[in-house]
Specification:
383 residues; Rossmann fold; 2 domains; 18 helices; elongated
């Protein structure tokens, strides 16, 4: 089979490369052409565009790079037409990929499989109509997503497992001792408070100083930041310059850090799920500026009760969320004290983590996703 894959971000490159390996394992004649990254290229096939030339996030960056984005769109459409694949697999990146889906179905009549659902359950629900029209199979990585689609009249969504579950399960560092971790990073013997302050500079500016201020009263602990790959150490030094407490920054060690931490302050996103799977008590702290605009957007454009994946998957508050108007140094400090000193509160969090584990359940997400692809293509061809 011939597969054309579009992944427009680093995470998409990672997940798509795993799917490609699983497709090869079940299809000796698999041939790939793709927009993606180095991980996909290492599996095989022909890369036409690197995601570094595509990953524009936010209104202003998109507006500034609109000519480049339009050119990427034109080139992608042409490449799919020229490659003439048996199916097109779109990985996340909905602003771009849903437009590609429309073109592929309307103009080329090639089946479209979407891997990693857009967060239509949170916002931009109008995209459900696009999914219904142009996506033949939706491969979801959150267990509540297929039911959401079903309630909205789309029956071709299936939960295939969550890549973070596989990543944590396959991680080989569980046996490392606290002493080994501390020695490797020149840390003291004090208990660690992990700080995961986001992956983008603006997130870090908005959140890290208050997180550090709240944690500065816990003098019996040391603070360690999980450095974002794209953010240099000098930036963290700059953000910390006016803070009472200073934190050590470590890179490429998020799982190691969480594993050895007594508690964690986490902004949002996948990091909340990683902390849960590694059994670290956490409080979610997230603020966006300007505050009044953020509050308006949340009230009028979002349709979810929680911002953390842990609570969304559990369907209830497992971990405390200090989001925007609830975000303050005082509240972060209070919740951090509970994580460090309230055993009953921590036990309740761990019980919630057990619920999340059970709901996620499935492992081998790439293999399961590939099986759905094979089954769909076989059914379509009548085999």
């Amino acid at each position: 089979m011939r597969y054309f894959i579009v992944a427009g971000e680093a995470s998409g490159d990672l997940h798509a490369s795993g799917l490609m390996k699983a497709l090869i394992a079940g299809d000796n004649d698999a041939k790939f052409c793709f927009f993606g990254g180095n991980l996909m290229e290492s599996v095989g096939g022909r890369m036409l565009r690197h995601y570094r030339e595509m990953a524009f996030m936010g209104f202003v960056p998109v507006l500034l790079h609109l000519p480049k984005i339009l050119l990427n769109m034109i080139d992608c459409r042409r490449a799919i037409r020229d490659f003439s694949p048996d199916c097109v697999i779109l990985v996340d990146y909905p602003g771009f990929n849903l437009r590609i889906a429309r073109y592929v179905k309307n103009s080329l009549h090639i089946p479209v499989i979407y891997y990693i659902s857009p967060t239509v359950w949170a916002w931009k629900r109008g995209r459900i109509k696009t999914v219904k029209k142009y996506v033949d199979r939706m491969l979801c990585i959150l267990p509540f997503e297929p039911e959401f689609y079903k309630r909205n009249g789309y029956l071709d969504a299936v939960y295939v497992g969550n890549p973070t579950v596989d990543a944590v399960a396959l991680w080989a560092g569980r046996e490392e001792s606290f002493e080994e971790f501390s020695f490797a990073n020149a840390l003291s013997g004090k208990p660690v408070i992990a700080i995961l302050a986001g992956s983008r500079r603006q997130e870090i500016r908005d959140n890290l100083p208050s997180m550090l201020e709240a944690a500065s009263d816990f003098v019996d602990c040391q603070l360690v930041i999980a450095g974002a790959p794209s953010v240099e150490a000098a930036f963290y030094e700059q953000v910390q310059s006016g803070c009472r407490a200073k934190a050590t920054v470590v890179y490429g060690q998020t799982y190691r850090l969480l594993r050895q931490s007594r508690a964690a302050l986490v902004t949002s996103g996948t990091a909340t799920l990683e902390a849960a799977l590694l059994r670290v008590p956490q409080v979610v702290c997230y603020r966006t500026r300007p505050k009044h605009i953020a509050a308006f957007i949340w009230k009028h454009f979002f349709d979810v009760e929680y911002i953390s994946l842990v609570n969304l998957i559990a369907g209830r508050e497992v971990v405390v969320e200090l989001f925007n108007e609830r975000f303050s140094v005082e509240r972060i400090g209070k919740e951090l004290h509970r994580l460090l000193h309230d055993g009953e509160h921590v036990r309740a969090i761990q019980e919630g983590y057990d619920e999340v584990d059970k709901r996620l359940c499935c492992k081998d997400v790439s293999i399961r996703a590939a099986e759905v692809v094979f089954s769909f293509l076989a059914h379509r061809s009548g085999h």
